[in-house]
Amino acid sequence: MENVIGKIKTMVIFFFTGLTSFLGALAIPVYLLVGANIIDYVTALLAAPYRGEQRTSKKGISGIAKKIGMWLLILVGFLLDTLLAYLTQTMGWAVPFKFAIACIVCIWILVNELISIIENIADLGVEVPFLMPLVKWVKQKAEDTAKISETKS
Question: Considering the entire predicted model, what is its pTM?
Answer without folding.
Answer: 0.78
